[in-house]
């Protein structure tokens, strides 16, 4: 039944000197070409009987989709870029946040046969090269993370016609498609817990305030103090790195040695704070309680184990992938701006 190749689009590889085509698969299965194409491309808009018939034909004929030809037919590649705007050291070594989100995104794409390409936009040269790469349509879509302030790249990608989904966002850009956690509520959970533990002199180490997550966590911290009739004794600014947590914690102790709690806007900064407290002879949590944010593996491995606001990082990655696939397939979704709920994981540091 394979017959001769009448078209090359979505054709398979050679089998005994003949190219197995999508038309041959459809004829062998007794279905239309459109139905066969939908089955092979992962659509669920087919009957169970047609699904089984096409899969049987694929097995019996040895049909293998040609990725390059299929990309031409569908006018898109089967590759998605995950673009991160931070230093390489944070992506690969220091910050578990990124690996968890990428794992979730990969899991959400793999069933659709879509590959994930990681790109780090650290310098302006990186951004220029990346912009040219994306405009050349080498990828079907883009997932974006950790862009700050008025960085023009997210808007430029969207304006180029390349579908994009952000996790979080810079303060000066509001995307139409995004996934985030309720950062302000997460900070409120942290402060309420500290108040319940009898803490009254609570400071914060903020994240970068030109990332919306950093700004929202600071806002939630202040809101929760006001709710409990407390005035913030101090805050110090960090940038989601361990070094900034070390510097900020030392600043807080120098200015207010009577502190009895600190909320750090990331686990990495909280780990830096714990280092300073050990060095200064402060017992945690007896003298000073510490709460972080993310609940990445850093929290459980800290000494003492770190109480942390949990954001569901892998779920965020999967949701990013789901939204991007919906954009690529022009599939309606109920909500294009997802905000997930945080929870508090209590450990020995508080």
TrEMBL record:
Q: Which Pfam families match?
A: LacI, Peripla_BP_3
Q: Which domain of life is it from?
A: Bacteria
* Annotated protein name in UniProt: LacI family DNA-binding transcriptional regulator
Residue ranges that the Swiss-Prot or TrEMBL entry lists as coiled coil: none
- Keyword Transcription carried by entry: yes
Q: Identify the PROSITE patterns for this entry.
A: HTH_LACI_2
Q: Which InterPro entries match?
A: HTH_LacI (IPR000843), LacI/GalR-like_sensor (IPR046335), Lambda_DNA-bd_dom_sf (IPR010982), Peripla_BP_I (IPR028082)
Sequence ranges assigned to domain HTH lacI-type in this UniProt record: 20-74
**GO MF annotation, one:** DNA binding
In terms of PANTHER family, this protein maps to: HTH-TYPE TRANSCRIPTIONAL REGULATOR GALS, LACI-RELATED TRANSCRIPTIONAL REPRESSOR
